[in-house]
Amino acid sequence: MEAIASRKRINPPRDASPNALVGKVALITGSSSGIGAAVARELSARGASVVINYGWPDLQGAANEVGNSLNTPWIAVEADISTVDGPAKLVKAAVDKFGKIDIIVNNAAKATLAKVEDTTVNLWDATMNTNVRGAFLVTQAALPYLPPKSEGGGGRIINITSEVATSPEILQTAYATSKGAIATLTRCLAKDLPPTYGCTVNAVSPGIVKTPQFLGELQKMGNAFLTQIFDARTPVDGWIGLPEDVAFAVSFLAEERASWINGASINVSGGMFFD
């Protein structure tokens, strides 16, 4: 557990590409905490207006806290991405507020740890509906509001996958399967969408990251699972990753200079995992 506690949040520097995303609108699903909140702060630091998303009323305070930490315009929208109607509700609220969407970050995810024998249909469906269908429906609903290709395009779709898609740990059958589906969805959209919409579609693939959801799941698993994970320490530092590490990779893909990067996946794991 020492590796979990030893690193602290890294705030994005105010002078790092401060104008790179000025005039852009970024929609980030599942952004009231963890990786999504870090992405919101990073993109705002680069000038983007931000659409913060939270799934349930009890997360409104956390979402507003993220918004109040930003220096650019923002809106917080309650929309459950796991439902059929939630993605369209989120996109509508974003467009009603800002009139367009330039950057989509499909981050909302349900992290599940369970034995195969204990993975119920409800647990399986909840994982897939949030992690896979939700990302697809958000992207589909937002397409008409991306910058038109006739005007140069430049939209960015960035999916948060996971290294467990290719290197799963124990107890991750549902979760790893869903992340594998997102990785494939990214490659499919990277072929299908740019010719029509002038956008790019990429993924960021984190390893083990210190988020409230991940730590909560670990608490249930006990020391045996923790030992298995942290015995395989990362070559770079031997640290667990921070949400801000992932957010920096997202911000790189969101910038205009990343226009020739399409269908890629950036590994953010400190070298613990390799494709």
TrEMBL record:
This is Short chain dehydrogenase. Belongs to the short-chain dehydrogenases/reductases (SDR) family. Keywords: NADP, Oxidoreductase. Pfam families: adh_short_C2. CDD domains: SDR_c. The keyword NADP applies. The keyword NADP applies. One of its GO terms (molecular function) is oxidoreductase activity, acting on CH-OH group of donors.
